[in-house]
Amino acid sequence: MHTMKRNAKFKTMPATLESFGAALDFLSRFEPFSTTNLDTIARAVRRQILNGEHVVTYDGDRIIGYAGWLPTTQQSGDAWADDRGELEPSDTDADAAALTTVAVEDPTITLGLMRACRDLNPGIRVFFKRAYGNRGRGARKASVLNTTGSAPAERLEKRKPTSTAPRPAIADDPCLFLYALAEQHPGETMRIPVGETSVVIVQDPALAARVLVGNLGNYTKNFASFTPFFGRSRLTLDGEAWRHSQRISQSFIAPHDTARALALVAGIYDDFADALLATGGAPTVIDGLIDRAAVAALTEVAFSTPLDVLGSSFAEDLRPIIRYAAARTWDLPGVPSGADSAMLAHAQSATDRIRAAMAALVEHRRTSGPENDALSALIAAADETQSGPEETRIDLAGELLTLVVAGSDTTSAALGWALSVLASAPDFQDQLREEIRATIGDHDPSMADFDRIPSLRPFIDEILRVFPPVAILSRFAQASDMIGNEAIVPGDRVLVSVIGLHQNPSAWDAPREFRIDRHDPHGEGRADRKSNFMAFSAGPRICGGARFAQIEMATALIKVLRKSRLELAEPLPFAFEWGASMRRRGGQKMKIIAL
């Protein structure tokens, strides 16, 4: 294979992490890559970027076409194109290139990508074959470019350009859409058109359990847009690779030294309560203060490191990454993108700062010696697996970033909703404050204290029911299945709506009412609550830090209510921002009044 040469219109990308992320992010918008095992795609794209075995074209600074190839022989390529054999790679006697990874926004780009591959590798044949999306006809076409001619355009896949129509409601505000769906079609499993495709939404607890537990192997995660930032981590992995990662990190997600962790969290949320008071009673969007406290709790407990050591912008830098990756999850065929190049640039620069801070943290720990925390455990695991097969290696940077986000983002979102509800319900706020004073006085709470405050745990549970931080559990079907009366085919996107589960009148009495009595441990229906309450998912992928997240929320509420009164400055909109968690669009705005 000849050395790659640059081309003015179609060109290769430098072998950098940013190139890998940009290519994977672009491919994740298109079938079959959006429904293919993530490890398979990531390994192929990584090889193509590192070896220069790819070509891209841009609209400004935005990728609109990508083609990656495998060096092979003409004999193998002919057999592959005619469905007579598997494609065999060849590194030494390659005289052909098989385009195995092709995605375009506009079908007219495809031929140009094929010609660019031939031009960049003179003297070879270029093979291209794609299975079309119409499974009913099973259509399949093959194209071949040789050194003297080109494949006719009519033999290339015809794909409609991305629509310029407004974004569908489910893509623009998925959480608001799901609340409306739960009210209009309670408990129903429905196939919803989205652009040129569709998604299946599950709102019944028993059917959700089939997707998340009973037929778990058939439904893989949908986190392709997060991979460029989080790498191969327990957030993005599936199957045995996920289990391997989960076994290593799980024991440190729920702290084993709870007394130490509780003391650290109490100190952090004492500072948080003071930071709220420092707003001086002015109407303030408090989300940033909550985020900073939640991330600080995670870094102290899991990394034995104060947040300030990681840099002044560390907590704030998580938001643009999450916001961009979440926006790209709805970049489906025919759906205008919710992300742009400015969002990508912001996310990439934030990732650079976070990874630099993580690298410095790891280097300092290697120098200072191990501690009994998640950071040292993950460093040791990464070192032990470095020489093993790629699928068993620990992506240290990805795992650390995943731990930060998983250990803080949902807690932060839930705490924001809790403080907002308290601000809107002054009588209940006074009641809860008095229960705290009567039960534990002014001392820091112990583990036993949380269940002694009558309304505290039921209030937190009702917040998680009405405003579940992880409101959507997205999966890809790998094989045919039946979910209720809905026939599932391979490649279907299946969304378990936690909002729909928690607003289902068959599972919850008067589900749109905010009632803490439904979580009374001695009340009627408590025994049935477990199967209907999925704020932390279900099955093997249930949130490992669920119990500690609730304790962290309880500690924060105790600290805040002791020092201040919460008041709404104005009515807040019932509109949402969906990232890794569900937040109020525009933020949680309120006044903090000193007691």
From TrEMBL:
Ribonucleoprotein recorded as keyword: no
Keyword annotations from UniProtKB, A to Z: Heme, Iron, Metal-binding
Annotated residues for binding of heme: 543
Gene3D superfamilies per the UniProt record, alphabetical: Cytochrome P450 (1.10.630.10)
Cofactor: heme
One GO MF term attached to the UniProt entry: iron ion binding
InterPro entries: Cyt_P450, Cyt_P450_E_grp-I, Cyt_P450_sf, Cytochrome_P450_monoxygenase
Pfam families recorded: p450 (PF00067)
Family: Belongs to the cytochrome P450 family.
Name of this chain's protein: Cytochrome P450
Source organism (scientific name): Nitratireductor aestuarii
